[in-house]
Amino acid sequence: MAEFVPKEKGNPLLLFNGYLFVKEKEAGNRTYWKCQNYNKHCNCRAKTAGGEIISVSCEHNHTANPAKVEARRIAKTVKTEPEETPNSPQFVISNVASHNSTVTTPVLPLHNHTVIPANVEAPQLTGKVKIELETCDSSPPHVVSTVASDNRFASTPVLPSVSNMKRTIQQVPREKRAKCSKDFPEDPTKTKKAKFVQSEKGKPMLLVDGYLFVKDKELKNKKYWKCQNYKKYCKCRAKTDGDEVISVSGEHNHAGNPVNVEVRRFMEKIKNDSKETHDSPQYVILNAASDISNLTVPALPPLSSIKRTIRRVRQREICGLPVPNHRKDITFLDEYTKTNRGDDFLLFDSGPSEDRMLIFSTRQNLYVLDSCQNVFMDGSFKTVPVIFDQLYTIQGLKNGFCLPLIFGLLPNRKEETYIKFVKTVKTLVLFSNIDSITTDFEPTMIKAVRTEFDSVNLYGSFFHLGHCLYKKVCAFDLKEKYNTDAHFSLSIRMLLALAFVPTEQVYDAFGALVDEAVYPPEALPVVDYFEDTWLGRPCIRNGRRPPIFDLKMWSCFDRVQQNLPETNNAIEVWHRAFLHQVSANRSTIWRFIEELKREQSLNEINIEKLLSGMECESNTKECRISAKQLKKLTESFQEYTNVVDYLCAVAHNVRL
Questions:
Q1: I want to staple 74 with a disulfide (CB 3.0 to 4.6 A). Which of 22, 97, 124, 375 is the partner?
Q2: Domain architecture of the chain: domains with CATH
Q3: Residues 68-122 pLDDT 10s
Q4: What is the pTM of this model?
C-alpha cells in the first residue's frame, strides 16, 4: 500500500522506504513519480495504480531523510488544527511539537534562525502547527510550544525557526480562524468599512480617505488594490477582505480629488436610475443633480453626453423590458416616442385595440414629403415586429434621391385598414405638390389610394411586376428551366419588356411576340397568365376584357422618358438594408423602434445634405447603368422595324 505525506502547498508526496517522490505525470489510471531530488540528478522513479506501488526503478544517489518526512506531517497538522479548536497559535504549535522528535525540532519555527530542512520529520511538525492553529485561537508562541511538547527528540534539530512558524500561523485564511474566534472578535479600530464607486465601465473602485483605487488582483478571499494613478508611479496600495479595508501601505505622491469622487457618484446614480426607472432623461439628470455641490457642477460632463449615457444604459436594458404579446398591451416609454435628437417620432397611435395602428415620422420628414412631386409606397413583412402584420413605408423623391419619410405599422391587410392608413397620412401631410404615386400591386391598397388621391397619377412598380411574373414561373415548376436555359429566360423577360412599349402599341407588340417567339408548351401557362392579368383576354367580338391591372398603371415608357423611377426599387433596397440592420425577422417592438430611430438619424443627415444642395446617389452603379440604357432604348423605339428585336434588346437590360 502506497503511503503519502503532505507537501507545503497541499500536494501529496509519495513515501517509499524513507524516500519522498513528487508526482511527474498521470497516464490512464496510473501515476508516475520521480524522486524529489530529481534536480540533483537522482534518477529513481516509481509507479502507482489505485493506491498501490507497482514498481520502483533505478537507485537513489543519496540517503533517505526520515526527519524530513515527519516535519512535513507536522506542517500539515499546523495548517489544519486551528479549524478544529479555538486554542491560541502558541498552544497549537506546542500541541503539535509535543509529538515531534528532537531530530525534527530544528526544522520547525521554534528558534529564531534560518530554516534548514535537513530531515524528513520537520515538515510533519510544521503541518501540525498549522493544524493546531486552525483548531484553536491561541497565540503563535503558545501554538509552537504545544507542538514542540509532542515533538520527538530526533526531529528537533531540523525544525523551522519560531518566526517562520508564526508566519505560517498568520497565513491561515481569516475565514477559517474566524470559525473558532467568535468569542474573540478583532479590534474594530484596526479595520474600516470599505466604500466603493463605479468606474466609467461599471467596475468597482475602492474609496479610502478621498483616494480612489482600482483592483489589482485577488488572492484567496482578499482583494488587492492599487491607486488609480499607478501609471504616474503612485505606489500606494490597499487590501480588503469582504467589505473591510484590512491595510493601506505606501504613501500617495499626489493630492486627493474629492470633486472627481463626487462626479463618479453622480454618474453612478444616473446609470442606476436609468436602469430602475422609466423617467425621461431630463428628470433623471435633475434628480441626480439635487445631491451634488456647486463645486462639482463645473466638472460634470456636458448635458448631451449624460443623455447619451442614459440612452446607452437603457439600450442595454431593452432585453429586460416586458415584451407585449398583443398590440393592445403596448405601453410606450417616452424614449420610444422620440428620435435620438429628442423630436416627436410617434405621430399617430390609434389606441389600445386589436386593430392598433402606429405611424412614425417627424415634422421635418412631413415637410420634405409635402414638397415632393413623386411618392413611392411599399410594404414589408419580414422586418415587422411579431405582433404586427406589415411595415408600410412611404418615400419621397427629392433631387433624384428617395428618402424614407413615413413608417407605418399595420395590423392586417384589410381594405379598411389601408384606407385608414392613407387617410391618416393625408391628415399629416398636405401633398400640395404631388403628381404621382407608385405602389405595389396590392389591390386593396390601390383602391385605398384611388379613393383618397383620385386626381393623382397612380403607377405600379416595375419591380413588383417582375416579381409577380417570377412567382408564376415558379408556380408552374419552371424555376429550374428559367435559371438554366438562357433562351427560355430571355423569352420570359420579353413579356416583361412590354412595359417599355408605348401603351397604344402594347397589344400589337404582344401579338408579334407570341407569333414570332418560340415558347415551349410548358411556358404557355405563363403567357396565358400575363395576358389575363395584365392585358385582358380578347373577346369573341372586337376588343378585350378589362385586365386586373390597367395597362397605363404598369407601363413604364412615359416614366422613363420623364426620368422618373419606373420601380419601387429604392424602397426594396431600403427594406433589405433595414432587415440586415435589425438582423432578425419578426423582432420585438422595442428592438424594431430602436433600429427605426437609428435609421431616422441617418435619414436626417441625408435630408440636410439634400436641403443644402448636395447630391446623393440612391441606386447602385448597376441600376444606374441599366436605367440609362433603358432610356436610350425607349428614345430609339421608332428606329426598330421589328418590335420583337426591340423587346429582345430591352429584355437584356431587365430581370425578374
A1: 124
A2: 3-57 (2.20.25.240), 66-179 (no CATH), 189-256 (2.20.25.240), 259-316 (no CATH), 329-461 (3.30.420), 463-564+620-656 (no CATH)
A3: 777 777 777 766 665 555 565 666 666 666 655 554 555 554 433 333 333 444 4
A4: 0.54
